[in-house]
Request: fold
Amino acid sequence: MSYLCSWLLFGMIWWLIAFAHGDLDQNSDSFVPCVTSIHSFSSAFLFSIEVQVTIGFGGRMITEECPAAILCLIVQNIVGLVINAIMLGCIFMKTAQAHRRAETLIFSKHAVIAIRDSKLCFMLRVGDLRKSMIISATIKMQVVRKTTTLEGEVVPLNQIDIEMENPVGTNAVFLVSPLIISHVIDKKSPLYEISASDLHHEDLEVVVILEGVVETTGITTQARTSYLAEEILWGQRFVPVVSEEEGRYSVDYSKFGNTVKVATPSCSAKNLDQDGSLLKVKLHDSLTQKDFVRKRTNASIRLKQRNVNQ
Reply:
């Protein structure tokens, strides 16, 4: 519409220039018009299109006769470039809204470590606030910590990939509802030798990366967050947020970050593997007789993730 309006506007200006100069009524061969081959508003409109989109069929051209026509030609070219820039900017803004899409991908404020299916697991919750789906969503987790090699070399930021528990065998997830992402702390895990007492003294950070394709635009979006040692709660699990009401499932996002204390051994996964009877005893130093729910504050979905658009 903006292009059509500009073509009509400058077509009217070219017609007025030709009318004022007398180009519409002159048929003499010696007469020099402002613009050749303009005899009506239709021809002026066609010349306006040719100027702005630089088609240049060659049948109509501007002459040196009218300074006003030269000025109009310059102004129309500048206006055409400005309209092109605005349109390209609008298209870019429309297609580059992946960062806004990533803002609706939320992570729990805290991660938890608890027993799940008789295994010590590291867990976090991820959710999608929009109805539109994230296609081919995948999650990757890494532990960043300071390590020392056998040769004595100190690696200050060693990145170690950790596998998440998925029956499919891949890192793909289907975010139709909030999911609890679980990592089994086994012999391959960098958290294998960490106990509840050691956790708060560890200098580590668990980085979580969620990547997928925006359904509406087809652009890849990425959301990230991380958990420091003090943001990992030992011996707690997440409160269920999905409930069934009248044959329909509903999600209560007010409980998204809430956790409840559960019986969990305070020893490391390595010690659990060495003495499996600890699971039956369910040792946990801070466990009380009554479970309680750890609620987050209203301002608490603290999204630390940074958004990367590709």
